[in-house]
Structures are given as structure tokens and as C-alpha cells.
Amino acid sequence: MSKKIIALCLALVMVLSMAACSAPAQTNEPEQAAEPAAEAPVAEASTGEETAAETPTADSLPVIGSTIKYDPNVAINDGKDIEVELWFWSGAANLFQSLANQYTAIHPNVTITLVENPWDDYFTKLPLALQGNDGPAIFNVHNSKHDLLIDYMAPYDIPVEDMEADFVGVSGHLVDGKVYYTDYGLMTATMYYNTDMWAAAGLTEDDIPTTWDEFREVAKKLTIRDENGDLVQAGFSYNGGIQGDVLGMQYQYGQNLFNEDGTASINNEAMKNVITRLHDMYVVDGVCDYSFGNNSGDNFGQGLVAMYLGWGFMTGVFNNNFPDTHYDCFEIPTVDPSNTYAYHRYNGESTFGINKNAPADQQAVAQDIVRFFLANDGIQKEFCAQNAVFPMKISLQSDTDLLASPSIKVLAEHIDRYIWPGPMPSTLEDNMKIALEEIFYNGKDIDTALADCEEAINEDLATLDFESREPLYKYYK
């Protein structure tokens, strides 16, 4: 049997298996922020190259995708050998290897060289590499580094209307009417709780809190101190940093994070209420001490903390690093569930960037890899499952396997009540962290700390090209 036939057989098995595993459940579909893809017109597949072979043959592989389609039978680079680099930051090498394996099984003339860098090194090395024509043709994107990367990126060779038919949230990423990257998954703050501690405290599923007042009572029940009053088990801990979570809780009071003129609104009553509540949980309720561990996520995994507010990626951390810790999740509590402007903010796990300075033949391959990634429910599902993110691809939003993940399932009911404020510059979290340390550890009054925080953030924003995406929120006011 020839190598070509062997490759074709392998590719057929992989494509068919991907199609089978990616079929979403169609019952009990949650409310979505966009119309179903079935309502949108189906566009013809375009891979940047035309082929005369329009009629499927016995050796053809099936075309995949909903509106964005991918035809694996179209030759890439005229069938000539070509190599491209794909850069990514550390933490999910198996995902990128899976993508490379699946793509090259279909196109054995393409070699995808994976280049992994630690997070900090990645965003130092990548912009430098993108300045020349020998940088990676395709690379992993994080929207917090938007300003650092966007000038080196080429727009997707896919119509915007096709992107919007298949994915929620595309409009928030348009730059001059073009898509350079979007989100494949939504991540936000989720409350993790230790189910063994929960049961030992006599709590049941009926005790899962929906309001912050209820949450505080549950946290007190989960707190254990010894005869000397020393903490043994924290009912709830945010030690190690909660600045990213604070920047989102103000939405529950109807307070946006940014003003209409683009400045940040930090020194307001909503933010004061959020911080006062967190402070009182420790000082008044006694559910934790500031000296009880310096990393609440690890402390939760180690069995020292009963409840922890963390983002979806912590699911992987707990499963990998603390497999003996039994946990579940519930949605972040609100001030008033019957009148909640938004539950919290979200951030997206981004699709790939394409290097506009790469040679034309490498850019064409990168465009084809992006189309393959977007059209393929199977690989989308792999990425969403490992990163524990709610799928932005509409065809997967009722997928029963993904909704079985604790930190994904709790988002389904209110998924349209989370706000993406845009690719927030790091100054917001950096200065909020300083403010919280001043308040919690140094006794600085909240008014002064927030005023200083807001001033520092807005000084930085004045030098940046940042535009809030809050007005795109469905219920914006």
C-alpha cells in the first residue's frame, strides 16, 4: 500500500471520528446570545486556492463545518512540501500537538513545527520575532496583549458574516470591520467548593447560595477553628489575589467598569460595596485570616479551604495537581438574583493569530489551519474541554460532554448575563491589586485607596489605544 493511500486512510478515520464526537445534543438548549447558525446562509468553502475537482470521488474526505466549511480534499501549497511554525505559551502542548497531528494527517506535505515558550518569555520573544519575515506563521493569542500583537497580524480570510453565524461574540473583536482573532471559549469566575467538607458541615445541594448574604452564612458553617481560635479550615479564602474577580463584581450593582469617555470607573459606591463585603467576611465573619496561606487556589486543592473563587482554568489545575480533592462548582452569587444587571465579566480564550510578515505561502497555510480549526467541532471541543471554557461556537453550546464539566455547566443558564469589557490593559488588575493590599493588609481607607487606584489606571489608559466593549453587551445601560 502506498504512503499516499495510507495517509488518506488515516485522515479519513480522523475526520470521521472528529465529526462523530462533535455532534452536539439538541435538547434543552440554553438561551444564547446569538441566533442559531441554522438561520444563517451557508457560504461556499474557500481556502484561498481553487480546484477543478468539484465532484466527490471514492477517495474524497467529507467536508466539515456549519457555515464556516473546510474541504480537506483541496491541496495545500499545490501539494509541495512546506513547513510553518506555530508558537504557543506553556501549559497545553498536547492540544497543539493534537491540532498539528490532525491537520498533517490530511495534508502530509505540511510540517507544523511547534514552539513552546513560558508565558513571560512568550510575550517578550513573539513581538520581536513577528517584526521580520522569519517569525512564526501562526501563533497563540491572548487578548490582554492585543496592543502588543495587532500590528503584526493579518485578518482572517473568512467573511465576517460567516464568523458571526458560527461563533458568539465576534462583533467585539472587529478591527476596522475585520476579524484578526476571536474567542473559541468563555472563561469567568466560578465558585469551587469541597464536596467532602460540604457534606461534613451538614450542607446539601439545597444550601447552594445564590446571594452573597446566603454565601456568607454558608462560609461561616464551613469554617473550623481550634480551641485557641486558630483557623484549621477556611470557609472561604481569597488570599493571594482577588483583583481579577473584584473587577467584575461591580456589574452586579449595575455599575459599568468604564465611563462613556473611555476612562475607568473604580472609585464608586458599587466597588466600595464589593470590597467592604470581602473585608467583612474576614474581619466580621472570621471565615479566613490574611495569614492563612498565600495562595487560596493551592490551599483549596490542599484541603485547607472549603470555597474558592477561581476562573475556569483552575479545573485543570485541580484535576492535575490535586486529584484526591473532591469538588463541584456553583455560579458566583449575586446581590439580588431577581435584578442582576450582569453576574460578572468574562474573558475569552482566543483563536490563532496569523503573521502578516510571514512569506505568502506560509500565510496561506496559516489561513488554512485557522479555517480547519474554526470549522472543526471536534478540535474545538478538545480545546474547550481542556481549558474548561464555555464554547463560543454555537453548535457546541448544548454539548452534553462539555456541560458535564463543573465550571462550564453552571454558566449555561445565565451565559448572556456576563460582560466582556474588551482586552483590558494590565494596568487595571495591577493597580487594583495594589489598592486591595493597601486596604486589606495596611489599613488604608477604601475611599483613598480607590481614588489613587482610579487615578493611576486612567493615567495609563490615556496613553493606550483602548476602547471598552461594554456597549456591545446585550443589556447595556
Structural class: alpha+beta
Low-confidence stretches: 1-10, 12-58
Q: Using the CA coordinates, give the radius of gyration.
A: 24 Å
Provide mean pLDDT, rounded: 88
The major sheet is characterized as:
6 strands, mixed
Note the beta-strand portion: 5-15%
Counted beta strands:
14
Write down the overall geometry: globular
End-to-end Cα distance: 65 Å
Total DSSP helices = 17
User: How helix-rich are the residues, as a percent range?
Assistant: 25-40%
Question: How would you describe this protein?
Answer:
The protein is α+β, with helices and mostly antiparallel strands. Helices cover 36% and strands 13% of the residues. The protein contains 17 helices and 14 strands. Strands 6, 9, 10, 11, 13 and 14 form a 6-stranded mixed beta sheet that branches. A 4-stranded mixed beta sheet has the order 4-3-5-12. Helix 8 packs across helix 16 and helix 16 packs antiparallel against helix 17. It is globular, with a radius of gyration of 24 Å. The protein starts with a helix and ends in a 16-residue tail after the last helix.
Keyphrases for this structure?
single chain; 477 residues; alpha+beta; six-stranded mixed β-sheet; four-stranded mixed β-sheet; 17 helices; 13% strand; globular; disordered N terminus
Quick structural gist:
The protein is of the alpha+beta class and 477 residues long. It has helices spanning 3-21, 93-106, 119-130, 146-149, 160-166, 195-200, 212-221, 243-249, 269-283, 296-301, 314-321, 360-375, 377-387, 400-403, 406-409, 427-440, 446-461; strands spanning 64-65, 69-70, 82-89, 110-117, 138-139, 183-194, 224-225, 231-233, 307-311, 327-331, 344-350, 353-354, 390-391, 418-419.
